[in-house]
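Allow me, if you will, to draw on your knowledge of protein folds for a short while. I have a record of one protein: its chain in single-letter code and its fold written as discrete structure tokens. I remain grateful for any guidance, and I place the record below:
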Amino acid sequence: MGEVSRTLAHARKLGTLSREEERSVNHGDFWVPEAERELYKDALGALNAAGIAYVVAGAYAIYEHTGIYRETKDLDIFVEPTQLVSAMRVLKGAGMTARLEQPHWLAKATRGELFIDIIFGMGNGLAMIDGDWYRHSRPAILAATPVRVAPAEELLWHRLFIFERHRQDMADIVHLIVCVGRHMNWQRLVAKTGEHWPLLLAQIQMYD
């Protein structure tokens, strides 16, 4: 029995793992509650049918690259600013309420209490979502629907700037380096980071 299996067996015996935590240890299927699954299926299917260029990011993208599951309250879809209005019209046509939340980076599509974040820029105003997110994306399936998943390099770059008092994404960065670091295009990542390279260096030092 391997170390992970022994740890999992011990945790099961103690009853300390939730269903979601056990999925993470097992690298099992990405679990989405039924109501959210139906919403995501409708939204993603509509975007696909309309030919909108988007990528799925957030917890699902981290799972696709690392196999590590964490429960999430919503779905993050990234689009270039030029695709935003078209995407929101499509989601409105799919029976959702579409609204602009923050004019420099965030829109939302809602159905009842459920929602999808449509992200087209950085929350700190540093940059907009560019074509690299889609150009270097990879295919996957979410809610029984074909999607494109954000590339590891862009996911890591985006998380360099999420380091606030009540939230920071260092764990995602470490998991990406551990799981897919050897396959990442580090030259492209360094070029994208540009003058903010000390942020990337700090994360590598923390990882080390």
